[in-house]
Design brief:
The chain is mainly beta. 6% of the residues lie in helices and 54% in strands. It has a single domain, classed as Porin, CATH 2.40.160.10. InterPro entries: Porin_dom_sf.
Length: 413
């Protein structure tokens, strides 16, 4: 995420907030902007634009956003920090249709825990043909599905998936350009995205975690101005959706991550990484059970001089199962929904065996999260979760046990 001038960002956020408040005072001046694609014909690649926005009169800019706040009480191996209250994030969207087939979208996020206001997405889209569109600016690399479709109000869990935040770098965005497109045919949809962007650096193997850790590269704001390796990061995705079956996506991201050349002279070996991911979502008929998940495989060229605690292979993913159990008018809210939810997740940061003993290396986590969520409307969710989690260190010592409850609210506005 790219740090901007704090005073300017706060001013923009306050202006947008005041605009939303004014919309509640005089609704005749404002209207909800309907996404270009209907929800029925949308794919994960459309998540950036499929958000509720407010537009006033003939002003060229539409505004929206979401917020998240949580309470949690967790304990690890019998030790707890007690009751904790968190304001996770406050996000502002700003979109504009500049002219026919030219549009702009941005996402500005305030994360108090990180102590920063940052831009996560800010790109210009130019449509030549439904199958050929140009996107440039600060893009979100489409690896898996969560990276693009990460808004808090869409999920039944207070925490983002471990595989999306501690294996893959969630909300991973870079300066870059690319092409994307989509094709409809009855109930079938096909979409693709292909981008060249800046990317990772040496911190993925030189970080405070003391292991191969891709999310460490998010702290490098210089990636929005220069590429460490001098080469582009390649990101591509293809996805197919059937309205009666679901959507499946295959994605790839890879390139060099180290600075290996200086003024035409090689100063190090060229080292690369590659990430493959598959994502899937479907809604079962009759029961309306919603299932979504993704799985990723990571390969990193780690120098031979590094110890085995720096893994060259990693994998992990998650599956969410959400079952509506009640949908009717509740406490004056029409079409309110009560859901039961379950998340299964697993991450292995170091796949393989020790060279000396042949024993399997650890450094892995699995967890089961159960939950109950209440949605007074599609844009607002209240969720109560219980987490049971086990984490093994590299040497496969008895796992650390973590468990506890969390409650959170999240809403678009």
């Amino acid at each position: 995420m790219y740090k901007k001038y704090l005073s300017f960002s706060i001013l923009v956020s306050m202006t947008c907030l005041c605009t939303t408040v004014n919309a509640q005072i005089d609704s005749t001046l404002f209207k909800r902007v309907t996404p270009h694609d209907s929800l029925k014909n949308s794919m994960n690649m459309d998540a950036i634009y499929n958000r509720p926005l407010l537009s006033m009169g003939k002003l060229p800019v539409a505004v929206g956003g979401y917020m998240e706040a949580n309470w949690q009480h967790l304990g690890e191996d019998g030790v707890s920090e007690g009751h904790q209250f968190q304001f996770r994030r406050f996000t502002i969207f700003m979109a504009s249709t500049i002219s026919k087939r030219i549009k702009f979208m941005s996402e500005l996020e305030f994360e108090p825990a990180e102590g920063e206001i940052a831009v996560e997405f800010a790109a210009l889209d130019v449509e030549f043909h439904p199958l050929l569109n140009l996107r440039g600016g600060m893009i979100v690399n489409p690896i898996g599905s969560f990276n693009q479709n990460h808004d808090g109000p869409k999920w039944e869990f207070t925490d983002r998936p471990i595989s999306a935040t501690q294996l893959l770098p969630a909300t991973w965005s870079n300066a870059g350009f690319g092409l994307y497109g989509k094709k409809y045919s009855g109930n079938w949809m096909f979409g693709y995205e292909a981008y060249l962007s800046s990317g990772f650096d040496g911190t993925i193997i030189n970080n405070e975690q003391n292991k191969t850790y891709l999310p460490a590269a998010k702290d490098n704001a210089e990636r929005f101005e220069e590429s460490t390796s001098g080469e582009p990061l390649y990101t591509g995705k293809i996805a197919v959706r059937n309205n009666k079956i679901g959507e499946i996506g295959l994605s790839y991201m890879g390139g060099a991550y180290n600075s290996y050349n200086d003024d035409g002279s090689d100063i190090d070996d060229r080292r690369t990484l590659s990430v493959f991911a598959v994502d899937f979502n479907t809604t079962l008929p009759t029961l309306n059970t919603f299932i979504t998940g993704e799985w990723a495989w990571i390969n990193v060229d780690v120098p031979e001089t590094y110890t085995q605690q720096y893994g060259n292979k990693q994998y992990g993913g998650f599956v969410d199962i959400v079952q509506p159990v009640l949908k009717r008018k509740i406490l004056g809210w029409d079409n309110a929904t009560l859901n039961l939810a379950c998340r299964l997740e697993y991450v292995d940061w170091n796949v393989g065996k020790f060279r000396e003993t042949g024993e399997k290396m650890g450094d892995e986590t699995w967890s089961v999260v159960g939950g109950v969520s209440f949605r007074p409307n599609a844009q607002t969710v209240m969720r109560l979760n219980y987490r049971h989690q086990r984490t093994k260190d590299l040497l496969n010592n008895p796992p650390a046990l973590l468990g506890g409850f969390s409650f959170g609210i999240s809403t678009y506005f």
